[in-house]
Amino acid sequence: MSKKVKTLLVKLLVLAFALIVADLAGGQVLKYLFNKQRSGKYFTTSHAIKDGKEQVLIFGNSHAAQHFDAPLMAKTLSKSVFNFGNQGQSLLYTYPLVKTILSRYQPELIILNLDYNELRYDPTDYERLAILLPYYHANSVIDSTISLIPDRAALKAKSHLYRFNSTLGYIFLNTYGHSYGKSMKSLGYDPVEGDMCTGTANHEEADRGKIAFDKNKIDYLIKLISYIQSKQVKLLITTTPLIEAHENEKNDYKEKLTQLLTKMNVNYLDYGSSAAFKGKCKLFHDTSHLNATGAALWTKTLLNDLSKYFDQF
Amino acid sequence: MLFNSVQFIFFFITVTTLFYVLPHKFRWMLLLLSSCYFYMAFVPIYILILGFTIVIDYFAGIYIENSSGHKRKVFLIVSLIANISVLCVFKYYNFINDNIGSVFPYLAILLPIGLSFHTFQAMSYTIEVYRGNQKAERNFGIYALFVMFYPQLVAGPIERPQNLLHQFHEKHEFSLERVSSGLKQMLIGFLKKLVIADRIGIYVDTIYNNSATQSGQSLACATVFFAFQIYCDFSAYSDIAIGAARVMGFDLMKNFNRPYLATSVSQFWRRWHISLSTWFKDYVYIPLGGSKVKSKVLVYRNLLIVFLISGLWHGANWTYVVWGALNGVLLIIESMIPKSSKRDNLIKTGLKTIFTFSLICITWVFFRASNISDAISILGKIIRFEGPFYPGNPKDHFYYACVAIMALMFFEFITEYKPHLYKLLPNNLVTRYCYYTLIAMIIMLFGVFSEGQFIYFQF
To answer: Which of A267, A306, B98, B133 has the maximal Cβ count within 10 Å?
Structure first.
């Protein structure tokens, strides 16, 4: 081996060492800052994985986060409540969170909000699991969920810095900025303002494309329900109201979801087509998201119905 | 294989190590095989198209050199027709067919990656042999390697045979300086692609893919962002290509030279995609007469022809043709304005730079829009500049993109106007290691690792 090659190898080794040290040190600093967040999507996830111990827990996507008025529920039920719903997340995200919580303690009730098309295959659901990267190595369920993220994210997560990729802005805004939505004060509830009557609200695009079920999601739902039942925790599955009748395409997904829930003997409260909400533009921010007024009404409806399913509620 | 993929890192390390381990006489074989593997990682069957043009051009080159008189021209024309035919079939067939009323059946074919790049490189070979500037390559493998050299195979720089071909015959000794400098350029390329281009791309795609519902302010911002996205995306590819080649001792031509600091459209084209601009200058503009023609009208005609072809080179869509035509028209208008011999002060230079950038951004609208009517509608909204401004959801991509663009322009400004400032930094091992480590940390923290394709691959 020539002297030049040796010199290069030594230089590369020193550089590799410097990179590893920088990665480890940078990762530790970011982890420290990350854990100081007081609000936002990561705060909620951290609360679920690390220290949440509420009696009533709510899970799901934005429909859970924005529709379940957790402070109102806590006041009415006189129980501790937390809304773990997170925008854009699916069952793939909920499953590891619920497993982590149930391995720590036994809550009284879990409310899992599912959309009719929850079992649809959507590649973005896998990309959005990147929210779990900062918790790599927290436990084996989280690690196996991280392995579902495309583009070999699990391999890249070996880097301590990569685990906090694109989070620096969130960290500073949710630590030193004003509180962004989901916080301890709001018990995870993240209401949205504005209604569809003003004409400025957003209209969500209807689902298009062929019907494609996601085997992982079906598997996760079955495992999730079985696990909650095995831990003897009460479970209620809900679908929150929509402003108008859902698209025909969703019928296939709805049918499959209903079949599965019936088969697994789960309490399912379906308000997707509720007459109390249908066509009421004052209650909706867009076609599928209730505004704060609608969320309060929905929460009261849910609280009234809870006693039908569970004696102590 | 994408440069920004995990496979490429392993591929690059393996090929480079083997390159230096193997004796010189086997190196071209290694490079040829690895280039085939690199290309076949996209769509394997398309290597046959490359093989077809390589065989034609290889023999054309030898026949041109061995012939005299009229025959030389015939062999050149055969070679050019073969190359242009491949382009026409695979790139322009459906476009032409659509525009003549779908007389022929629609061909469901995918455009081979980088077709326009390697076809143009192959054409430059036969043209240069015909002109007597390059000797015909007798070693088929080395000629194939000239067309297929993996660093620049799918997105350039489009090399001339005089610059690259002889390098495959030369023995490249291991040079620590070249390896370090090549790796450094590759690192800069990864930074531009992963941290700037792909990050900006998230916002640009959000706005442009829903242009009908977006406001003028959002579209104006997305257009400026797109200007930086395409620059960072393409120059990143060139940086990685030039760096990877340099690590193995090969010199590829510079492709970008801080184009957004240009003070005129003509200067922009001397700084943007230099290998293509000079290709058109050498093989289209000058043969048409260039600027040494009898009348100004003919110069304008030549400019317009070059930019119309350049537009078509980029893609089989009217948006690219209009983009090319607009650039041609801007150059014509610019050439009509008398130039001052006085040197501009800093303020005037700044204003000229901003004005040139604005003009270039207008042309980018046509480059990015899906069709002409969309482009016109987008331009109309930008001119009206109505709100509200939409920063995207989540907003952080927008903020990251703003910071990245400002940082890029800051360093480009220093390099262009105040290069002596770099000398103030201590040039020792510790500083260099800190610099490399910092770049690596920025990439890991802010990079977009979705392995997004390079924009220019589609051409």
So the answer is: A306
Cβ–Cβ below 8 Å for A168 and B446: yes
| Statement: residue A201 has pLDDT above 60 | no
Interface test with B, best of A4, A10, A13, A129 (most B CBs within 10 A): A4
User: Same domain for B160 and B105?
Assistant: yes
- Residues of A within 8 A of B20 (CB-CB) are 5
Residue with tokens 């469901």: B108
Question: Over 50: is that where the pLDDT of A203 sits?
Answer: no
| Residue after which a domain boundary falls, among B153, B171, B189 | B171
* Amino acid B37: pLDDT: 94
> Above 0.85 for ipTM, yes or no?
no
**Distance in Å from the first CA to the final CA of chain A:** 77
Instruction: Find the DSSP H helices in chain A.
Output: 3-34, 41-46, 62-67, 70-77, 91-102, 123-127, 140-146, 153-156, 168-175, 215-230, 250-263, 292-309
Cβ within 8 Å of residue A194, ≥6 positions away? A200, A201, A285, A291
pLDDT of residue B255: 95
Query: A120-134, A227-241, A270-284: which range is least confident on average?
Result: A270-284
Number of structural domains (chain B) is 2
Domain boundary at B128, B148, B171, which?
B171
Domain assignment present for residue B334? The answer is no
Domain housing B36: 6-171
Round to whole Å and give the CA distance between B253 and B246.
Answer: 11
The interface residues of chain A toward chain B in range 97-136, judged by CB-CB distance below 8 A, are: 127
State the catalytic residue, choosing from B70, B314, B397, B420: B314
Q: How far is CA B160 from CA B151, B152, B178, B240, B253, in A?
A: 15, 12, 22, 19, 9
| Same domain flag for B63 and B131 | yes
B314 counts as catalytic: yes
Q: Which residue has the higher pLDDT, B213 or A249?
A: B213
